UniProtKB/TrEMBL annotation:
Domain of life: Bacteria
UniProt-recorded name of the protein: Helix-turn-helix domain-containing protein
SUPFAM superfamilies tied to this protein: Putative DNA-binding domain
Pfam families referenced in this protein's UniProt entry, alphabetically: HTH_17 (PF12728)
InterPro entries linked to this entry: DNA-bd_dom_put_sf (IPR009061), HTH_17 (IPR041657)
Domain Helix-turn-helix: 79-126
Amino acid sequence: MIDRVNGVVLEAVDAKYLLDALDVLLQGRRASPRLADFIDRLRRTAEKLSPAQENTHATVREIGGPHDSGHAGLYDLVDSSEAARILGCTPANVRDLARRGRLPRHRAGGRWLYPARSVAALAERRAATRG
């Protein structure tokens, strides 16, 4: 089950700025236990981030890593507009390609959806023939 997570996302630069601001505000004062705990957790998290990880959480793994099964890509679907953007044509042309059997499609809720892998494969074939 998916749980809702409430929180705030800060970039590493903003976290460091917030820590510096809190240090200035607390000069000559003692932080409450709750604030001291917050500052400590924020400082530990900010220190874990290297410049290469500033935009990524420390526990995120690389795409295509050893645990990436690739099964999710089998079920990715795009609508006519997105398929047209990928193929560099109009949505009407995408629907025509599907009618002629060049592109598989599925009807869902009154809309046509196309497997993303099939659309990408067709785009690659078209690019290869164009040179």
